[in-house]
Amino acid sequence: MSKELSERKKKILHALVDLYIATGQPVSSADIQKGYMSDVSSATIRAELSALEALGYVDQPHTSAGRVPLKPAYQLYVGDIEHMGAGALTDAETAFIRSRFADKLSEVRDISKRAAEIISDVTNYTSFFVSLRGGSVVIDEIKLVPLKAGKVLVLIVTDEGIIADKTITVSEGVRHEYIESATRMLNNVFAGRTIGELEGMDLDSELNAETDSFRDIFDAVLAIIQTYMAEHGDDVVVEGALKMLDYPEYNNVEDAKNFLAVISDHDSVSELLAEAEDSIEFSVRIGKEDSGVDKCAIITASYKVGDEVVGRAGVIGPERMDYKKVIGVLEYMKKALGAVLDDDKDKD
Amino acid sequence: MSKELSERKKKILHALVDLYIATGQPVSSADIQKGYMSDVSSATIRAELSALEALGYVDQPHTSAGRVPLKPAYQLYVGDIEHMGAGALTDAETAFIRSRFADKLSEVRDISKRAAEIISDVTNYTSFFVSLRGGSVVIDEIKLVPLKAGKVLVLIVTDEGIIADKTITVSEGVRHEYIESATRMLNNVFAGRTIGELEGMDLDSELNAETDSFRDIFDAVLAIIQTYMAEHGDDVVVEGALKMLDYPEYNNVEDAKNFLAVISDHDSVSELLAEAEDSIEFSVRIGKEDSGVDKCAIITASYKVGDEVVGRAGVIGPERMDYKKVIGVLEYMKKALGAVLDDDKDKD
DNA sequence: GTTAGCAGTCGGAGCGATTGAGTGCTAGCA
DNA sequence: TGCTAGCACTCAATCGCTCCGACTGCTAAC
Question: Is the pTM of this model over 0.70?
Answer without folding.
Answer: yes
